[in-house]
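Severity: low
Component: inverse-folding endpoint
Summary: output formatting inconsistent between runs
Steps to reproduce: submit the following structure tokens with default settings.
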């Protein structure tokens, strides 16, 4: 059973919101589904996906340190998981952060590629020592840029912009 089938029966807006909260799909999966499967208007698809993508971020930023510390101290498997997660995120995000400083976090979240996005950006924000407020602000900027890019790609207008097209049919 896929994610869309699992959410069958939910209002499309709620399904879009929930899909965008998930660490794998985020808004990169939610917007194309909202537009293509649920046939939501563009403004609605983007609104619910952005809100859903941002919903877990304050909790991740606030709770990552105490929860990871608690779990790591008690269970070896969690220690190994967080070592893997933190090492991988640091390796993936460090080049963005070193070159572009805080704007690197925005770019890291904005680029719609696997293992980038708001969830991983939250871990990177924690690892690079940003305050909760600053991290949330920068991640929000990245999510908004990602929403524009994913929406444009979903509507097929991405290449028109690069080719100098002025309107979409």
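Observed output (run 2 of 3):
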């Amino acid at each position: 059973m896929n994610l869309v089938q699992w959410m069958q029966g939910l209002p499309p807006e709620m399904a879009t919101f929930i899909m965008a909260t998930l660490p794998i799909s985020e808004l990169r999966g939610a917007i194309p589904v909202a537009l293509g499967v649920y046939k939501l208007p563009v403004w609605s698809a983007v609104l619910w996906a952005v809100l859903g993508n941002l919903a877990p971020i304050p909790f991740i930023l606030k709770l990552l340190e105490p929860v990871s510390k608690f779990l790591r101290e008690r269970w070896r498997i969690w220690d190994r998981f967080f070592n893997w997660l933190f090492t991988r995120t640091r390796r993936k995000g460090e080049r963005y952060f070193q070159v572009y400083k805080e704007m690197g976090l925005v770019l890291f979240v904005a680029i719609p590629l696997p293992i980038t996005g708001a969830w991983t950006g939250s871990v990177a924000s924690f690892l690079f020592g940003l305050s909760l407020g600053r991290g949330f602000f920068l991640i929000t900027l990245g999510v908004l840029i990602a929403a524009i890019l994913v929406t444009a790609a979903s509507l097929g207008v991405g290449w028109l912009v690069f080719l100098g097209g002025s309107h979409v049919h």
